[in-house]
Design a protein that fits this description.
With 60 residues, the protein is of the alpha+beta class. The chain has one helix and four strands, in the order ββββα. The protein is elongated.
């Protein structure tokens, strides 16, 4: 998975293999093609999300 930023500046995950933006947290895989999402990729996304929250002040 790769972290990209949507037009509002929030980070999102996209699959390296198929480009899908659906992540199945139950199986830790891409929803469309089944590519496994590594712990490092999840950590990179969580870091980007935390930076976004710090920048915008918007926490859910």
């Amino acid at each position: 998975m790769v972290v990209f930023y949507n037009p509002q500046g929030a980070p999102e995950l996209a699959c390296n293999e198929c480009g899908c933006r659906w992540y199945d947290r139950m199986t830790n895989t891409c929803y469309d093609c089944g590519t496994e999402v590594s712990d490092a990729e999840v950590a990179a996304f969580e870091k980007a999300l935390e930076q976004h929250y710090e920048k915008t002040g918007n926490r859910p």
